[in-house]
Design a protein that fits this description.
- Helix content is 34%, strand content 31%.
- The chain is α+β, with helices and mostly antiparallel strands.
- The model has no long low-confidence stretch (mean pLDDT 91).
Length: 167
């Protein structure tokens, strides 16, 4: 992993658990975290054409075709999570009132692109947890970190570290 950026290393070691009661709750948590979704709409072998969903408010969501160069440049600055469970992808689309794309059902997925501020917060949480539980160890000593999203009393969503595993 010597040639990877810190962001790439984080993407490989971080997992995010969403504690949801249903798909509407999942959408609410994604919206609360500031996610932008990329939804595959057409297959090209193992590659896809994606549409972007920026507004995750029920009734206001739209699949938008955007300039791929601009989108790639934008998401390069974001951390991404892939949800490859077709049931979750179909559920998210249903809650948002968006049509199912014309791709094989078993290949249905979505990419949640999170803002840089969330990545910074997760990094801070991870490093604070590391310092508290494993003093003297560095970020490069971390093999995996699991986060979960908790719902605060005010209805906001906050990540927390639930597990950190060292190499």
């Amino acid at each position: 992993m010597a040639n990877l950026t810190q962001r790439e290393k984080r993407q490989l070691r971080w997992t995010m658990g969403f504690n949801t009661i249903d798909m509407a709750d999942y959408v609410a948590q994604l919206r609360g975290l500031g996610a932008v979704l990329a939804i595959p709409v057409q297959e090209h072998g193992d590659d896809y054409d994606y549409r972007i969903v920026r507004n995750l408010s029920v009734g206001h969501a739209k699949l938008i075709k955007e300039d791929i160069q601009k989108v790639q440049q934008e998401i390069r600055g974001m951390i991404r999570w892939y949800d490859n469970d077709p049931r979750n992808a179909a559920g998210i689309l249903s809650v948002l009132g968006l049509p199912l794309p014309n791709i094989a059902r078993e290949k249905l997925h979505f990419v949640a692109c999170m803002p840089a501020a969330l990545e910074q917060k997760l990094s801070r949480l991870e490093l604070d947890y590391l310092a508290k539980h494993y003093p003297g160890r560095s970020e490069d000593d971390i093999e995996a970190t699991k986060f979960r999203i908790k719902v605060l009393r005010n209805g906001r969503y906050e990540p927390e570290v639930v597990e950190l595993k060292l190499r």
